[in-house]
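Sample entry (612 residues):
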Amino acid sequence: MANPITPKVDGVPLYPSENLFARPMSRWQRVVASSGVAIVVLVIGVITYNGIVRAREAGAWVEHTHLTIDRTRATLSDLKDAETGQRGFILTGDEAYLTPYTNALTALAADTSALRLLTADNPVQQRYLDELAPLVTARLAELDYSIDLRRTQGLPAAVARLRTNRGRQIMDSLRAHVATIESTERSLLATRSTVEEYHSEIVTLVLIGGTLAAVLFAIVLNGLLTRYADAQSAAARALMLQNARLESQTLELELQNQQLQEQASELELQQQHLHEQATELEAQNEQLQQQTTELERQTEELHVVAEELEGRTMESEHARVAAEQAQLVAESANRAKAEFLATMSHELRTPLNAIGGYVDLMQLGIRGAVTPEQLDDLARIKKSGRHLLALINDILNFAKLEAGKVDFNVADTSVLELVGGVEALVSPQMHAKGIRVVYERCEPDIATRADAEKVQQILLNLLTNAQKFTPSGGRIGITCAATDDAVSIAVSDTGRGIPADKLESIFEPFVQVDRHLATDTVPYSQRGIGLGLAISRELARAMGGDITAESIVEQGSVFTLTLPRGIPADVLPNLAVIEQQGTQNAVDTGREARDANSAEVSSPAHPEGLDS
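Predicted structure, serialized as tokens:
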């Protein structure tokens, strides 16, 4: 019996089969057929991604635990290294044996700080570290005390202190606490490793199961679509039969329509005249409507253009007002900064000069006799005061450069005399430090159009910087070159070099590359605040030139000063007066630096010294 809801044409069912797949697909069936596989893959992907994220988090915690264990062992190793250096010094009395001790103190501070950070999330470990800290302090104090005994009372006193076994007792307690911390971390490592393996297994199972589910779903869906296509083909054949019958009926209807059309033609002839008249009227109306529409469109366009112009005018006015306000604020801030720096310089220079004066009085013995050790301390105080004054001058000079308040006396100057004067000033200090200076004399006809004093200041900064970071036995080179419109002066060294990714940053204000590494060649009191290169480049650019740098780590660096070329030297006037005025300050400052630093060889001080 036929299904009462099956569509029929002339009593013939539209779909001969009552199979579900012979009927049109419903909306949900089409959604499942088109998106089912994608949905399954998406669900699997989300679950897999979640598992991978959790596995990565567990892996990160495992790595964190390994790092904590390594730092724990490193802490104990640092203490052993310090003990080794102490025992070597006690046995030999040679200060060189204290190098492992000093290095161990630095490493110990870094390792204990790292342990604090790594266990910040673990209150138990933090408590253990709190208990460990006084033991470390006690052990270091014991080591330092025995070293002082060796220095002041000799080997027997130091050995007697060691035989008290106080250091061994403290070290045993340290080992026990370190073992407790490491044991706790290893317990956490086991737990976190188990969690990591669990999440990895979950991800693997989800990938395998999801892949199998997607394949199975695709096979089932392919079978369903194949059966549906076969059913639709059968339905199409039935429709073709119905269409043939409908075509025959359509022919009969066309014959009847033809007769009606003949009758309608007569009526059309009568109405044609009316249509022609109506057409003319419609054409005229259409022309009028088109003209009206065009006028309205043009009016609207003009209105839109007027509104846009008005909006742009208002925006331009707002932007101009905002720019003027911003410029006023910037100028006010710049003036305030310049005034502050000038005031600060004056207020700091006065007490610094007073400190220097009192130090001179004490060195002369006016306030009473002083011991050689006290004279050495006074010399260091005076040297530190000069260094602080140089830092203040650096900041003030940089502020003047930023504000454009530095005056330049630009003139044609011989490069040979400029470089020769600076080379003669720094050569004694470099030779005293054991650095070989290779100066390839400039051609006498090379001249630069620049401020001679500023050029000498830049060269002195570059050479001072090269001296600071070039070890004894190294080499510093000075070369000159010229083109049609420029002069270049290159200062090269065989120091430790600068990484390629930091070559540009060394010219930024207050930037010092690897400052912590400078202690081997440059005392802390001689290190600046990172303004020397910034000031030098600003001075060079203000005179129409520039400073560039090239460097290879562990091989050395080359700083090149480029300046505009001037009139040849054979037509230049006598530069004796210019040199006397331009270099007097640098020479006096260098002489003071040599006198102040006669006890230890270092680079000459300069009001605008250089630190990279």
